[in-house]
Amino acid sequence: MANQSSSSSSSSSSYPILCASFNQDASCFVIGTRDGFKVFDTNTGRLCYERAIGAFIIVEMLFSSSLLAIVGAGEQPSLSPRRLCLFNTKTGTALRELNFLTSILAVRMNKKRLVVVLQDKTYVYDLNTVKILDSIDTVPNLKGLCAFSPSLDSCFLALPASTVKGSVLLYNVMELQSHCEIDAHRAPLAAIVLSSNGMYIATASEQGTIIRVHLVSDATKSYSFRRGTYPSNIFSLSFGPSMQLPDILVATSSSGSLHVFSMGFAINQRKSSSILGSIIPDSVADALDPTHHQVLQCAVTAGVKSNSVIRKVDKVVADTSTSEIVSCKATISIITYNGYFQEYSLSINQQNDPVWTLEHEFSLLTVISDNAISL
């Protein structure tokens, strides 16, 4: 599940892309530009739908359905940043509109809930009836920072709990109650992401040097990963898809590097004597070991905002009788706000040697619109 610090609004952006986000299973992604919005198939890069009706700063998609949540940039009176439109791509019409007193900074959805983040308040709606269920008073959240797990079983919303330190509030969106608060960093938060199953949360502060992973159920720290020595703006965090412990966590930052941190991905990880020995490192020092961190330098243009997601993780087993894993391969997709889509693969063998391959790259701004069809 991708962190969506990269999909929060930024109407003053100088980038051609104003917002970008992957849907809940990363099968599609959407972008908003000054001209309108576009929906792409992540697997093929095909332009599935586009609408050129003005500038949009938020576009969110509900799985592979025809439902989009869209918010205008305010460049036209009809596209106010205070108005949320639930839009049907099949009919090309608005299903519902919600108006707010202040600008909408982020929107999240799953099959039962709609979450709208404002600067000082977050609203939770029933998606089917669009009836308000709860409102959450928050600390000033100028960037609209949030994370949301689409799982209905462990459906959590994460929001900043402080403006002076890296505390995060976890709220159970199905039970409509606060779950816990985690003090993750000394500096304020810059990026947060929840795993798709809602079991783990990863955070980075404005310093951007350490990324921490906590178990949501009891708010215990499971991993600490060092991204680098020098400060950097973390643009996105994403867990690999998994029913249990995600194999890897990926981060993009202002340095232009792509960082991959291993949790269950490395083949020859050291084991501990505990029950969780096969997946949990011996200590924080173990998690800081270089074998748990792979870096692709200059993956994207330095300083350009980006949003990344781990689409899939494949493991090759040598012998089905022993289930010995001989290699792992992760597929990582990246949207850069200067208008490009890139897909990298990272393969790791038994010696934990990384091999990076750029599988696909194309411009999101020059895709032929004649290929667009309704979802």
UniProtKB/TrEMBL annotation:
Gene3D superfamilies: YVTN repeat-like/Quinoprotein amine dehydrogenase. It is found in: Preautophagosomal structure membrane. The chain crosses the membrane at residues 52-73. It is a peripheral membrane protein. The keyword Transmembrane applies. Keywords: Membrane, Repeat, Transmembrane, Transmembrane helix, WD repeat. GO terms for cellular component: phagophore assembly site membrane. Belongs to the WD repeat PROPPIN family. This is Autophagy-related protein 18b. It comes from Lithocarpus litseifolius.
